[in-house]
Task: structure prediction
Amino acid sequence: MMLFTGKKKNRTLRALAAAAFWILVWEAAALAVGEELILPTPQSVLRTLVSLCGTGDFWVSAAMSLARILSGYAAGVAAGTLLAVLTSRFSLADALISPVMRVVRATPVASFIILALLWLGKGKVPGFSASLMVVPIVWGAVTSAVRETDRGLLEMADSYRFGPWRTLKLIYVPSVYPSWLAACVTSMGLAWKAGVAAEVLCQPKTAIGSELYFSKIYLETPSLFAWTAVVILLSFLLEGLFRRLVRGREKP
Amino acid sequence: MIEIRGLCFAYGGREIFRNFSAEIGEGVTVLTGASGRGKTTLLRLISGFTRPDAGTITGVPGRIGYLFQEDRLLPWLTAEENVAAVLPRERAAEAGRRLRDVELDGFSARRPGELSGGQRRRVALARALAFGGELLMLDEPLKGLDDALAARIVPMVLAQGVPVLVTSNSAHETELWGGTELRLG
Result:
């Protein structure tokens, strides 16, 4: 049975070859340094990762981080979309919301995390930080897409008396959907990274970020690498799942 | 009857109408004239999408089946869905018949991107006819249609039994439509 065909096979082989190359570079660098505390070997990190996977705490931490950050992400998508609708519909909302979004975009995520630590409980900071990464991206994409909606189609809708609901359903939603989807995919990776960074800074009870922090505190470099690998793998997994979920739904 | 009195309109520094007056009665009125003489602009002024600089337009019916110069089809909907979009839910099934009227049987499930220019034009025309109204305003409805097809489409449009205001770019089309010619420029 052929597992891969044509271009897909080539792409997979190229990706595997690239991964193998960088693992070899890592191995060579680790051997050259010769100090596990500074740069562990790939085998050592893999061993740590395998042993971590055998513990219940690992899965609980991963699940809790995912739940916290994904709920923040979903809230961010919803808030960004809602604010974009308000911005596009009401000039007063535009005047009030646009400068706030510019400020949120320009503010370092670490500042928000520290402020959120003062305002919210530890467990809520990662989700809050993740949502703050998402809101301006989704807001910007949706606002621009609404503004760029084909005027000719809107005039046609007016001429044929579509009314607000039909105009929204048949013109605005399909026009905005591709930009909204692209913004959701782009912001997912950013939300994940910001959420983990927030966990590192605020150390909730069970979290990937807390494990990263404690690995650093106790100078367990292989564990630090292993948890980082978990963050990267989960990021790839989330993005892949999301792309699969929306594949074939470029139009609503 | 639509009455146009003292119409003035300039666009991009170019005067298109200066103190223009006309009456558009029942039946078919064909707007003719060279490109850029204001045929499309006059339709837009009558429909209210463009405001005149001066003058008045009275007697415009409330409901107009307007075929725009561009097709303005929704690219994410099929031909049938595009026509059904202008119909109330209870009359949505009528869309298929409207497409058959413009000889597009078998194309109802295709999206605009999968149709030729002439086919898209007919979908847009079917949509305008489905919407109906007390006046049909058709901007270049025969664009992209061959002579034989145009000769079959025109009587079908006229059979709707409402006043038609149509733009034409050729003597042949003007002849097909018949009615009163209103020459601009």
